[in-house]
Amino acid sequence: MTQLEEQATQQLFEKNFITEEQHNQIKEYRSLGVFSLHAELKVFLYISVLLFTSGIGILIYKNIDTIGHIAILTLLLIAIGVCFYFCFKNSKGFQKSETSFENPVLEYLVLAANILTCIFIGYLQFQYKPFGTSYGLATLVPTIVSFFCAYYFDNRSVLTIAITGLAAYVGFSVTPQDLLTSDFYSHQGLSYSAIVLGGLLILWTIYSSRIQLKTHFNLIYLTFALHMISIALISNLLDVFDWIWFVFAFVLGASCFYFYKVSHEVKAISLFVFTIIYAYIGINIVLFRFLEHIDFSEIWEIFVLAIPAYFIGSIVLFIKLIKNFNKEIAL
């Protein structure tokens, strides 16, 4: 990465975007080896919030008989009220552009308040069932609260909770392991819901970019959309055995092409890498489906020799694509 930065700086100097004095100052600064602890401190704050909320959950679980339900809910409500009080007091209010608290600790206070709200609503529904047997509504309410907090306080972490809650409301969780463990195989309509929801997230990023509404949230939406659509399409490629698998293969190809282009536009290496991985998986599934109709009795030796070359070539191509992408975003 340092070499790429040096090359980028040299290109800026050669194109007269920076002066020789500025070029020397940049080289001198990099030679000092100075690094920031800002990211590390934010990680520790994030872990602290997770440990705090997890500790509350464990405390409730182990002392539920001695503390009492009303007392637990009251304590949770007080904690939520205190957190939101300081958040609203120090907030700059809703703005369409990117904003932040003057004190970064308050960003994690928003996260804590949101997680505690989800715990409160979930515990309230489990114990007293204010929403009746409609557990989907009990999921939707904290999801709406999360979206409000994400946009009002401009918090990416809360936005991920909101999107996850929305996916749970539809009926599935968004993780790559769901390719093997989810109900996509037994409930094909669920995969269609995932594709539709992923498409809606893409449309929302296009619309929000047009009206300039929190455009820095687009990468989160696109990441969720990529996983939802790709996992659902790949599961259908593995499960469907009639001609319709051609349709899923075409849609997967179009989806990967779109995310490939978008990853260059937003300069997101994570989006690019996962797009390449999903495209590679899809290509191999399609290739395997065609090979099923070929008789290898006479050419099996060539096939065995070609397999290592194929995988080695895939690895080399993958590394080359990553290097080229890093060069492009470094310019």
Automatic annotation (TrEMBL):
Signal peptide: none annotated. Keywords: Membrane, Transmembrane, Transmembrane helix. InterPro entries: DUF2157. Residues 11-158 form the DUF2157 domain. It holds the Pfam family DUF2157. The chain crosses the membrane at residues 43-61, 67-88, 108-126, 132-153, 158-177, 189-207, 219-237, 243-260, 269-290, 302-322. This is DUF2157 domain-containing protein. The lineage of its organism: Bacteria, Pseudomonadati, Bacteroidota, Flavobacteriia, Flavobacteriales.
